Amino acid sequence: LAAERATAEQRDRELALELQEIEAEQSELRRGAQRLPPPPQWRKATREDRSGLPLWRTCDFRPDVPADLRAGLEAALDASGLLDAWVLPDGTLIDPATEDAFLVSGSNSAPLPLERTLARWLAPAVDAQQAAATGVAPALIERILGAIGGEPESGT
Length: 156
Known about the structure:
By secondary structure, this protein is mainly α. It has helices spanning 2-30, 67-80, 128-134, 138-147, and strands at residues 53-54, 59-61, 86-87, 102-103, 122-124. The strands form two sheets. Strands 1-3-4 form a three-stranded mixed beta sheet, with no helix packed on it. The longest helix has 29 residues, at 2-30. Residues 26-49 are annotated as: Disordered.
């Protein structure tokens, strides 16, 4: 009985610590802190000296996108590697041996209908200061979002 009690008390301490961590995270989120998505395990390249931004820093959900769709879309972008993909300001191609994912704006493809692209749910969210510092302009993000197809109703 003493061993069971010790095990239960240890579990209580662990759960109390976990609850404390969750409450601290909730408090930070209420204050407006952003929780950064973890980088994909396969990304080994450093980004410190590279111009551009990850996709998740360049756009936000349109106001009419419901919360459940937001969660599913974010999960799909994360699983596909697009959420963390690096947006290059000038379309420069990076050495293929670089272990990272990149998004560049191509001008040779025919535009997709808005309702069949990420632009249906996401909008550029790059402010003037960010654009000046990184070279990533809202128009570039608009083109990239409009070139990535996706239709959640059909599972694509």
